[in-house]
Sequence to fold (484 residues):
Amino acid sequence: MTSRQGRAIAAVAGPLAYLTCVQAGPAALGPDQREVLGVGAWMLVWWLMEPVPLAVTSLLPVIVLPLFGVVTLRDVTAPYANEMIFLFLAGFLLAAALEFWGAHLRLALRIVAAAGRNGRRIVLALMVATAVLSMWISNTATAAMMYPIAMALGQLFGEGAPADRIRTSLFLGLAYAASIGGMGTLIGTPPNLIFAAAAKELLGQPIDFARYLLIGVPCVILLVPICWALLCYVIYPSEAVLGEAAEHAVAERRTRLGKFKGGERATIVVFGLTALAWIFREPKQLGILSIPGLTSLAPGLSDAAIGLAGALALFLIPARDVTGERRRLLSWHEAKGIPWEVLLLFGGGLSLAAATEVTGLTQWFGELVTGLQGASPFIVLLAVAAGTVLLSELASNTAVAAMAMPIAAGLASGADLPAIRVMAVVALAASAGYALPIATPPNAIAYGSGRVTARQMLRAGLVMDVVAVLVIVGVVLLLGPVAG
Fold:
């Protein structure tokens, strides 16, 4: 079968799934519920098989649902302007400025340079640098930026089995750390913001930047060292060390960067102030110490407004580039290159989630799993996490999170669990596809290096999938009450 034939089959399979749900759906569902279920099935098929771009599929609710009177056009389009979409837009713009001025590369080289010549420490340093950057910059951009550094380091290990194993760990660690780091902050990866938006839309529970850190950061802190230890000591053990040439290579890259440039310094300051404002937007109570938040002065201040204010500052503040020419920290030339299609993908998932809630389809999903009542919360969340990871190996993690959030909310009601925790597990697990090259762009980048085979990735990735499921469920069970 050619790729053209495959796309043609996929294009037809989506509408067929829709018609099947509408005409032969469960008898317990009303006409509106079947329509929403059908649109969800159509979107699921097209998100998995991609006969059209993911963003185009995300427009289906706007086309179909008002047509049959399920919801009004105004209601179905409102989620496409959800405040979380503007927060992610701000994150994209901040990341574009960091990348333009090279601030991200300086941080990465500094961390790697601190590792010395021990191969295992170099893998750890590269993973830490990648995870830290991925908390703020897209997973794909982070992996692409760190890739040449990993290639340069990998070439300096020489020949032999120990060198080959450390190179395998280096590139797998790069890919996995990019995905793990994205779990850490609300803007780290799309599923996190989908979770926050769905929590507000479906449950009326706002998840702000600081509150999300309570579950996101512990996952990163646990998964990065565990992943490193498994790669370097268990799955691909090696005691390889670098020669002096490697240290010189990293030092040379740092030298070429030179001193902090005016634009680079100013961008880091804007970024740092924005991050601090996100963290301290709400008042903090640390024991007997009470720290007032920015909302004490401006009650209507939101995370999206803070992010957009930081982005606006980048468009206003002037600086000199490497040629000495005076320009703004961020121009539309860089801004127009951000992944705008992801914002539409967000909107489509949120629109479907809202329609699922309004028509009562969420309650029907919950009734399907009433058999889970009385089951251990650990078992329920484990099943949710495992199912999400399995889907994320085969489809976009953004698409998986978008279509799974309303289902998770319904499942929670059927299993007598707080919906916010089930949805948090879905969001985190959607970023945990480690076994296949097609699972995530960082995986594809690592596989494309030629230093990692599909079998090697599968061997390490299956272990990491299991570990990630256990860590995510453990963190949500332990810290979920604190985070909400």
